[in-house]
Amino acid sequence: MIDARTLLRSLDDAQPTSGSALAARFGVSRAAVWKQIEALRASGAPIEAAAGSGYRLRGPLALLDADAIRAAMPDPVRRKLRSLDVHWQIDSTNSALNRRVQAGDPGPGACFAEIQTAGRGRRGRGWQLPLGGGLACSVWRRFDAGMASMAGLSLAVGIGVVRALERMGYNGIGLKWPNDLYHEGLKLGGILVELGGEALGPCHAIIGVGLNVHIDAAAGTTIDQPWTDLASVRAGLPIDRNRIAACLLEHLLDVLECFAQSSFAAFVDEYARHDVLCGKCVRIIGGRGERFGEAAGVDRQGALLLRTADGELLVDSGEVSVRPQSGTAP
Ligand code: ATP
Fold this sequence. Notes:
The protein has 330 residues and is α+β, with helices and mostly antiparallel strands. The chain is built from eleven helices and 14 strands. Strand 1 and strand 2 (54-57) form a beta hairpin.
């Protein structure tokens, strides 16, 4: 059996490598090579297979590497982060960190994976991560003030992601309340915050970020919402997922620290600058059925302010989804 990661690393985007050359290199049959290549392709890896010439990557692909991520971090951030795991395949990065939390790890820590077998969005929805094309990143941290004080955390995390992307040269990223990243009406990423612990005492937050970096068009057909990736947000910028990962961690840790001190109130104005729903007519789904209104920003706890025919009301993020009324993208 060939190790999938080693096989992927041995492919090139400049020239194809024949199945027989790979079989000889790994001491296996051509059929075994083919089988593993098909498994990689099924996971979304951008591999082309041409009869007679062999296998070639459709573009350069650098796999995630914990040492490379650490090396791209400023010293203070590297010191702050107590653990950094990079998995080839895992159920979900949030679940992996939850296991660390349950094991009594002091945190903060982070985790990445190339393949998630059960990547999660909110309310049980799935997150697609074509192999090599995105980032599945989770970070966790302990807080003293209790889960009751964590309102607005997913919005603050969104700001952390936007700051990181702006630093990397990707501008115009919008936030769709409460947990999505958009660019020009297309979904670029999502955030999943999972809390545990006491309502008024020690607690923890596990924050998952799924970000589309350079999704292979073929693999992207399995994503059932209009989507975009960083390669489309700004074409031509060299893409190094390890550097993006490091920058993301730096900004997420910074936001979590600021949130621990000042709560969401510290982020309200910045959120307003990236709020793609503000002024739009929206439909709120869930909770007590459907409600319609105009989104009018967020309050100091991160609740969505909705102007309805019956007056203004505040909507908590917990169990609702927001859609533009026309059904178009935000
Ligand atoms: P909500 O407004 O409630 O957040 P949502 O549809 O954005 O609704 P999420 O839980 O945030 O739901 O994200 C999961 C959804 O995102 C999936 O059901 C799928 O439609 C979409 N999705 C999955 N993978 C990707 C991806 N790589 N890029 C863009 N969208 C994706």
